[in-house]
Design a protein that fits this description.
This protein is an all-alpha fold and about 375 residues long. It is about 75% helix and about 0% strand. It is built from 16 helices and two strands. The protein is globular. The chain starts with a helix and ends with a helix.
């Protein structure tokens, strides 16, 4: 039995390594050769969406936490990165362009000044979302808020952040957000070579997040997270605190969304309230649900596919795309709850069924 289990684990590990190698070849070799600079830039944007989906797979797919507010953490990471880049673009002693246009201040606001430091800004892109998620999670999970109530609270937070950003035009750019970002830590983003560099950074970050999430899912913590999702009271009876288990998944997912938002800024050159409110938060969840929220590969591919469909179909049907997106989400949850990834599981089971049946026939009868 131990030998069989060991062979199974070894086989899964080998398939995982093969999958990583294949993904690396596609992302770092095939895509740059096959796609134009414009299409590669679009793919970089889609991969940022996929990074958010990795966190959703961990929190929702494994932990049952319907995170409808990931736009909050995506936005916190994006604004933290954009604030530093706007300060760098303005140059020493100068204010960012929008502050000169809309504001009356003669110096940077006090809460902008720490973002002059590149190390602080880089750390804030991940740590700030995680801190906010930890504070919010402690309040929610300690009070045993779950299900639809948790989803509504997380969505309300996304709406509140977007409204606050819109109201602070002099310091956040208001509805327009932080736009026209020209540089990325000394590199000019107008240069196609530097744009490709940003793409490679995003691709590497996505693979890293997938590896981290896979390690968590396959660890003892991952088993405990699934147990909390399936039977919270039983886990509490065994001596574990379900609130802490869910909190870890929520905070990790927030950090992943923050990193995605930070890398989205140099890829697109903008961050605005329209990218972090309720609708974007729902779009993140739709991508993971369509691909398969319980599967890392499914969630990533689903997020990329939905983001690509949004770009392609919204060009043809600008007024109707939202309806297509809602219909896609409803169909996925109603007829394919496991997402497209569940189809691969069904195919594998059907292939394995005849083998098990033939193995069960006695040797004498088979002769």
């Amino acid at each position: 039995m131990n030998l069989l289990k060991g062979n199974l684990v070894t086989g899964r590990s080998a398939r995982a390594w093969a999958g990583f190698a294949g993904a690396a070849v596609v992302l770092f070799a095939v895509a740059p050769l096959a796609l134009s600079d414009f299409r590669l830039g679009l793919l970089a944007k889609y991969l940022c969406t996929a990074m958010v989906a990795v966190g959703i797979c961990l929190a929702w797919g494994r932990g049952g936490l319907l995170t409808l507010g990931q736009g909050v953490f995506f936005g916190l990471g994006g604004y933290a990165m954009a604030m530093h880049l706007k300060i760098a673009d303005a140059g020493p002693g100068n204010l960012p362009d929008f502050m000169q246009l809309y504001g009356t201040a003669t110096e940077l606001p006090w809460w902008w000044k720490p973002f002059e430091n590149p190390l602080f800004a880089l750390a804030a892109t991940v740590l700030l979302p995680m801190v906010v998620a930890a504070l919010l999670g402690l309040f929610i999970f300690r009070r045993r808020v779950k299900g639809a109530y948790f989803a509504i609270l997380s969505q309300a937070l996304a709406a509140a952040l977007a409204i606050w950003l819109i109201g602070q035009q002099a310091t956040t750019g208001g509805t327009n957000g932080l736009t026209d970002i020209q540089g990325f830590f000394g590199y000019t983003l107008d240069d196609p070579v530097n744009q490709r560099m940003v793409y490679f950074v995003i691709a590497a970050a996505l693979l890293l997040l997938i590896a981290i999430a896979r390690q968590l899912i396959n660890s003892r913590y991952g088993e405990l997270l699934v147990a909390v999702r399936d039977s919270e009271e039983r886990v509490r009876f065994l001596g574990y605190d379900p609130a802490n288990v869910k909190l870890v998944a929520y905070v990790v997912a927030a950090g992943m969304a923050g990193l995605a938002g930070a890398l989205f800024v140099p890829a697109v050159g903008i961050i605005s309230p329209a990218l972090i409110g309720i609708v974007p938060s729902i779009e993140f969840v739709i991508g993971a649900a369509v691909g398969g929220r319980a599967s890392l590969v499914g969630a990533v591919l689903g997020a990329v596919a939905v983001a690509w469909a949004k770009t392609a179909l919204s060009e043809e049907f600008p007024a109707a795309w939202t309806y297509f997106q809602g219909l896609l989400f409803i169909v996925a949850l109603a007829f394919l709850p496991g997402g497209l990834a569940s189809l691969a599981v069904l195919v594998r089971r059907r292939k394995a069924a005849p083998e098990k049946k033939s193995a069960a026939i006695p040797v004498g009868e088979a002769a």
